[in-house]
Amino acid sequence: MDIALIALSARPLAASAARAGFAALSFDLFADLDTCAHTARCVRVHKKNGSAFDGDDLIQALHSLAPAGLPVVLGGGLEDDPQLMARIAERNPILGNAPQTVQVLKDPLALAALCAHLHIPFPEVAVDAAAAAALGAGAVLEKKIGGAGGAHIRRRPAGDLSPPSAGHYLQREVEGDSLSVLLLANGSAARLIGASRQWRAKDAEHPFRYGGAAGPVALPEPFGAAMCQGALNIALACGLVGLISMDFVVGPDGWFLVEVNPRLGATLDIFDVDPMPPLLGLHLAACGGRLPESLPIPSEAHAAGVVYAGRDLVVPKDAWPDYVADRPPAGAAVMRGAPLCTVRATGPTAEIAEARMRERTHALLRDLGLDPVAESIL
Fold this sequence. Notes:
Elements lengths: L2 E4 L4 H10 L3 E5 L4 H6 L2 E4 L2 E2 L3 E2 L1 H11 L6 E3 L7 H10 L7 H7 L2 H11 L6 E2 L2 H4 L7 E5 L9 E2 L12 E5 L4 E10 L3 E11 L9 E6 L8 H14 L3 E11 L2 E8 L6 H4 L7 H9 L13 E8 L4 E2 L9 E2 L7 E2 L4 E9 L2 H18 L4 H4 L3
Parallel strand pairs: 1-2, 1-6, 2-3
Antiparallel strand pairs: 4-5, 7-10, 8-9, 8-10, 11-12, 11-14, 12-13, 13-16, 14-15, 16-20, 17-19, 18-20
């Protein structure tokens, strides 16, 4: 075994590890068919609070199956629990950013202060009732500190000045297009890999849930250069290493940084493709201080959309065409609101790739006997 992978969904990491020729041991909440196909061993960890790791079960599984000293790469789903990250690192070194670094970047007040120091636009935040009034009369969002995937975000009722729930914070809502920038950093320098456009898969309960991404895309003028420089400045100021992504909103009021993700994420589906070298390999090299002199330009665009179950269902036999990833096995029960699969497509532009992905998604839902409109996934 060469490496251990830990994420709520380890499939994108596992696919990149397979491209790089690594024998990987994966731990996630799904153990989907393709995750298992890409790894030497695939372990499903117990859930806690619906969609989070049971930390004790994860540590027990890691200690039982991974030798001490086996390096670990983390994906999404642990940023809200830096103590769990530290428990992992006690026995198995994390190849990526340290738990302390992640904790600082996920602290809304610390990130706001850093952005102010670097002159990066960042929507105002508050963690108590006294500061909530300072956010103004506009729309305000409540977010979980360290939350991932957008399902934790809610829009506050107008005029609500109560303090946020424990472990949450408030942030002024900014309107516009959601864009993400993927970087590769070695602690003292960074390279831009590419930018992608993101969208929501919203329903009445989850108005800001992550829906997918398409790219590469050009960052909008006249903001693109400043957005890239802001992302690079944060990476260098914090000494970040490996693959990192930063999320922005660009709208009538200009551009705003809204989140820093100091780990591998969902846009591996967009950028970990030929002719790009395996991104997990680049991540490991960057953690060791090595950056490539240059990176190839993708020959086509990619889109990946997450399909969520609009009702409880049981996966039928032979349900998945080749363009589907994150495939639960036949007979698996998928609960309402849970991710069902990811639909992928390519095209000469991001717009065409996304349109093809949406066509495929509608066809898949019809084949599964589901109504695309009722499922509220697009």
